[in-house]
Amino acid sequence: MIVFITMEKVKKLKVFIKITVIISVFLSLVSCQFIQNLNSDTENSEIDYYYITGSKENRENLKDLFYLLSEEENGSEGEFAVTREIAGNFARLKDYDKLIQFLSAKTINNPADPYNGYYFLMIAYAFIQQNSQPIAALYFDMIINNYPDLIINDESIHLICLRHLIELNKNPQRQVWYYKELISRFPDKIDMGTAYFMLGQACEKIADWNGAIQAYTNYLPYTGTIIPGFPNSDQYARQQVDFSRSPKDWTFESLAALRASVQYALDSGNARILMQYQAKVNFDVRSWQQTEIENPRMTTFNLSHFMGHRIRYDPVLDASSNATEAFLRTTGWTQSLNTWYLYFRKIRFPQDPEIHGRWEWAGIYYGEKF
């Protein structure tokens, strides 16, 4: 589930965490008193036995674990192992409130504990299980920014946090930072193609056009990467990079101006003039049945081989034309490919305001539409 976090939500969540901390301090005092009474088998103090829960066997196990915890040195590997087992016990029982309270109290009592980053990670997981993803996201972010990385079971806790944050916090500025962190710190642990492409997408959303082009350039060696939601990622990235490097001297201020120039060239029968109006990069040539471009990097398409007779064109654009794309039906090319639809496209290139919004002749579709 994707969760969008607004500034108002962040303020409310910070207040919630402060309240949680206050509760944790209280519970930490309770837990200290509890540990002192572990060897007592009295059943008359519910506060002392707050953390003892579950079946009889589980209660006995927790008593033993808390006794071991009282014997371990603060911040030691032994204490970490016992603490982790206690928290895991609560997780198996799905008692996430006790897990959160127990680990919160522990981090409050021992702020210098080297394993606090991992304890906060377990707290974040508990909040996810309680469908409190915005709170979990705050913990993930806090771990990355305030606690050193730890390798637990051969996994980096910072890497785990970044992966979760990418899913939980869709703020594009934060997304840029997350992907840059992944790429710079964990290149051997991630899908670099996906990371570079999604970095480009995030850069576009914050109008960092130079950053977007650089990200798409870095993506190109990873073409073939399957990116969910972006079936044409290879084509898109290459178009952006190639277009950014091109002179863009074939563009027209309006669709009307482009159409008039193309129709004049068709009337004259001059292939050389007509070819001047073609896009010099990313010229799309395909049949209506094709889903892939024949040559996504095409720079020239020699029209003189196909202009045997006078080319005719419809007096109006095809009905499927809209504000960003237009099709002009033409006939009279070759006997085998008599009908072509000339494809005109409005240019989306915000990094250059002089080009953005202009029009180009971007391709050809063979045959009749079905």
Summarize the structure.
The chain has 370 residues and is of the alpha+beta class. It has helices spanning 7-36, 56-71, 77-92, 96-109, 116-129, 133-146, 157-168, 172-185, 192-205, 209-219, 233-245, 255-268, 271-276, and strands at residues 151-152, 155-156, 284-287, 312-313, 325-331, 339-346, 359-366.
Plain-language structure description:
By secondary structure, the protein is α+β, with helices and mostly antiparallel strands. The chain has a five-stranded mixed β-sheet with strand order 3-7-6-5-4, covered by helices on one side. The protein has a two-stranded antiparallel ribbon with strand order 1-2. It starts with 6 loop residues before the first helix and ends with a strand. The longest helix is centred in the first third of the chain and has 30 residues, at 7-36. Helix 4 (96-109) runs antiparallel to helix 5 and helix 10 crosses helix 11 (233-245). The chain has helices spanning 7-36, 56-71, 77-92, 96-109, 116-129, 133-146, 157-168, 172-185, 192-205, 209-219, 233-245, 255-268, 271-276; strands at residues 151-152, 155-156, 284-287, 312-313, 325-331, 339-346, 359-366. The protein contains 13 helices and seven strands. Helices cover 51% and strands 9% of the residues.
Question: Main traits of this protein?
Answer:
five-stranded mixed sheet, single chain, 370 residues, two-stranded antiparallel ribbon, 9% strand, 51% helix
